[in-house]
Structure formats: structure tokens, C-alpha cells
């Protein structure tokens, strides 16, 4: 029903407006009598064979929602009803910020892709904390943290530490985002020395908090082999719990969308089907050279159940959806879980 009826209608509207319309509709509909049980029966797959234990956490299934969809932790409970095994909120920054100018979200239907240059638009970490303190479900929540646009890279550590300490008691794991292409100079923090300093400092704070929380790093798909190998070295040295591969790409190679349209859209991170193969290759490289205790979450171009299986076969322990969720709807979650059970 989503692909045949709803999606054609929604895709006639501005993508960012559709996001808020659909999330409002999800929140409102689940308040109706019997809506929760109906939604669960349609999308939720519960089976002990789907459970995964990582980082000292028990995931009811390995399919999660990537950061960027529920930036401000407004839909955590509702998203759990759709069958996600975990939800990652953010990217959150210390201070609220509006993000980049609109329009900043674009569909490329011919490529089953999205270009976004949102720019870490969020209401600030403290607002998210207040919402998480009131949540009703026990779904696993990851906190994806970044820096404010106006914060120079030399002071970025302070922003990450602020978010880390604010979220510590309300999330189950952390993700350090230094790989978004939509905040000026942010990706420079992926360079070896700044990244090592950032992650080691966060781990030191992590130890001070009592029982440490899992700390993961989200990387860009545009790293070269030498940079990937630096990431592997740093992950081991900083004793990371895991790596998320990958964020959006700045590449525009191989698109079916006419070049004039791509140039008209301009800057931004590309996600969706064009990333499917490359993000899986990165997972495979990481798995080959990382020790087994550093776990991997695969994200990027999961548009069908087989794409998720491919990432797991390459070494991903968990997977995350974003663009596939937009194009395929919530049935993609159950399709992946049912495919896993059929193997």
C-alpha cells in the first residue's frame, strides 16, 4: 500500500514537509484505538533467532533506524512499534541550530537516492534529553553527537564532551559523527591526529562516568584506503566498541538523474542505492582488518532485504535504514527480518 498509494502522493510534495507530515501522522495514528496492535501485526517480527548481543546490549533484531530521521528524539516510542530493533537519534549539538537554508532535501527517484544538506538542524541536546527521560518504551537508543556549526574545529572536543555528558544517562550507546559533509570543515576531524585526540578524550570521560557506554565512530564513504587504515588503527588504539559504515557521500558518479538536475541541486550528501555496493565494500575491508571485538553497523543503500544480507555477509553485525525506509516504507524492516529467519 505504501509504494502503490502513499508514496506517489507523498513524492509530489516537498521532501522536508513530507517528513514532518508523515511523522506527525505516525504519532497521531498510534494514539487511535487498536492502532498499536495493528501496526505491530503488520510490521513487527519477533523471534529469538533475530536477537543479537553486542556491546553488552541485547538487540531484539538487527535492523535499526539510522541517525537523521529522528534528530530530536520525538518519535522513539513510535518507531519501535514499526519493528525497528534500535533507533539512533541525532545528530545532536550542544546548542540548538536551524541548519542550512532551505531547500535542503532532494529526491532523486531515478536513482532511488536522496541528497541532503540539512546541516545538523536540531533543537539542542538538552531538549532531546528531556524527551528521552519521558519515553515509555525500552527500545535501544543510540545517541549520535556532533558539533555546532559556529564551533571551530580546535574547540570541537568541548561540544562532543557536552553532548556526551548530557546524554549519558538516557542513551544506550554513542556515535561520534565527524563524517557529515554538511557542516563546514567537519570531515577534517577524520584526519588521524584530530580524530585520535577526540576519541581518546571521549573514552577518558567515558571511564569517569562509572560503567562506560559503548562508543562508536561513523565514517564517510569517501575515505581512501590509507585513511581507512588510519581509522582501523585509531579504533583499536581508542578501544572503540564499533564503527558505523557509512555516512552519505559527496560523490555523484554513476547517477541516472540528468546532470543538469544534479548541478541544480548542488552541494549535499548523497544516500540511497548509489551507495549500496561501496558501503558494503568498506564494511568488508573493516571486518578483514579489525579485531572481532570491534563490531560493525552497516548502513548505506539498503533498499531491499538482500542488501542487508549482503552487508551482514560482509561482516556487519547490525544494519541501519534511512533512504530505503523512505523509498520502501516500514515493510522493509519486516522483509529483512523475515529474510534472516528464512536463511
From TrEMBL:
GO terms for biological process: 'de novo' pyrimidine nucleobase biosynthetic process; 'de novo' UMP biosynthetic process. PANTHER family: DIHYDROOROTATE DEHYDROGENASE (QUINONE), MITOCHONDRIAL (PTHR48109:SF4), DIHYDROOROTATE DEHYDROGENASE (QUINONE), MITOCHONDRIAL-RELATED (PTHR48109). FMN binds at residues 67-71, 91, 144, 177, 218, 246, 272, 301, 322-323. It comes from the Bacteria. Pfam families: DHO_dh. It catalyses: (S)-dihydroorotate + a quinone = orotate + a quinol. It is found in: Cell membrane; Membrane. InterPro entries: Aldolase_TIM, DHO_dehydrogenase, Dihydroorotate_DH_1_2, Dihydroorotate_DH_2, Dihydroorotate_DH_cat, Dihydroorotate_DH_CS. Monomer. Binds 1 FMN per subunit. Pathway: Pyrimidine metabolism; UMP biosynthesis via de novo pathway; orotate from (S)-dihydroorotate (quinone route): step 1/1. This is Dihydroorotate dehydrogenase (quinone). One of its GO terms (cellular component) is cytoplasm.
